[in-house]
Amino acid sequence: MGRNRVTLADVAKRAGLSKTAASMVLNGREGTRLSAEAHQRVFAAAEELGYRPNVAARSLRTRKTATIAFVSDIVATTRFAGGLIRGALDAARERDHVLLITETQGDAAFEQYAIEAILDRQVDGVIYAAMATRRLAVPPAILSGPVVLLNATSAEKLPCVLPDDERAGVTVAETLLGHGHRDRIALIGRNRQKERDPEISLAAEARLRGIRATLAAAGVKLLSETFCPEWLPEHGYTATRALLGRPERPTAIICMNDRLAFGAYQALGEAGLTIPNDISVISFDDDPTASWLRPRLSTAALPHEQMGRRAVELLLDGEAESPSFVPMPLRRRRSVGPPAGSPWVAPHD
After folding, report:
1. What are the DSSP calls for 133-171, one per residue?
2. Fewer CB near the terminus (10 Å): N or C of the chain?
3. Residue-wise pLDDT tens for the chain (349 aa)?
């Protein structure tokens, strides 16, 4: 038989105060005229007795449960985006909140069940997350309370947190310009479906917009733009081989993601070319493979932990502008250098 639960009355008795006074101290309510010594007695008594507040009773009184729901499609079991959950967990813990996590795997029936189960627990709000940055349809059931979209937007114009892909495109282009690349920059990874359908991707069009605007401002045109059916290594490999067969070889290649860059590395290696001495390569995402490639790949990192953290802050505070864009820092590694034979002295990274 377990020991009896310690009550607020027990704490008050140990501290030599009324139950009301002890409650006001433990709940941090303003207006108490108790001395600092009395406050210390209450906290000491609570610690000595192992007192834990009755969360259910408190939630009935405050209509708050200090619980946040995190609903995702396939984020939870994806190593690549696990930072979304880590950032949200850390931010929730710092605010004395608990995160309830469920993953739907794209199953609409299970999603409905999971959402109903979460709402039955009277959560204070819902973070609805997507693996790929895209526009999604939000289940009507969660619209009855506070909602923040993570890595996604919606037709309902809900508060959302997104990576700043356009600014990342600017940074990638500026990096090549800063190393002296001008008239022979190639891009691989154009994809009309990703660029035109926001329900598939918001990143593609934004990255392309940042790249083009920055190069245009410098009076530079892309040497070529290669379309790929998917952003996968095999398509990066095929696109790079095609580039190398052109009469004018590029001095630098921008890949729309790191998996394309992985394929580009293989094609360049087979052709006997070195990175960055012959051709520079730069990319987006900071996939775990980026730091294992040789040379290590320079890439604009998806800021997953910061995004998860921002989503919790936006849900609890509700004051930030929406959409809330989180910067994608450039991981400056060894895959970018000046064009071969150029007198240009590259800036120190």
Report:
1. EEE-PPPGGGGGS-EEEEEEE-TT---EEEE-HHHHHHH
2. N
3. 344 677 878 888 888 888 888 877 776 655 557 788 888 888 888 888 877 665 544 544 444 668 898 988 776 556 666 889 899 999 999 988 999 888 777 777 777 787 888 877 778 899 999 888 999 888 888 888 889 999 999 988 899 999 999 999 999 999 999 999 998 999 999 999 999 999 999 999 999 999 999 999 999 999 999 999 999 999 999 999 999 999 899 999 999 999 999 999 999 999 999 999 999 999 999 998 899 999 999 999 999 999 999 999 999 987 666 789 999 999 999 999 999 866 655 554 4
Global pTM value? 0.79
Q: Tell me the residue type at 165.
A: D
Q: How far is residue 139 CA from its own chain's centroid?
A: 21
Amino acid, single-letter form, for residue 264: A
Strand partners, 134: 152
Distances (CA, A) of 231 to 78, 146, 169, 304: 17, 35, 16, 20
Q: Which residues make beta-bridge pairs with 227?
A: 190
The torsion of the CA quartet 207, 211, 216, 222, rounded to 10 degrees, works out to -120
**Domains annotated on the chain, with CATH:** 8-53 (1.10.260), 67-163 (3.40.50.2300), 165-301 (3.40.50.2300)
Which helix (H) or strand (E) segment is 266 a member of? Answer: helix 258-270
Number of C-beta neighbours around residue 229 at 10 A: 10
- Integer Cα distance of 251 and 83 in angstroms: 34
Q: Which two tokens stand for residue 296?
A: 């290590």
Instruction: Please report, to the nearest 10 degrees, the dihedral formed by the alpha carbons of residues 303, 307, 308, 312 taken in order.
Output: 160
Between CA 347 and CA 349 the distance in angstroms is 6
Beta strands 330-331 and 67-72, pairing class: unpaired
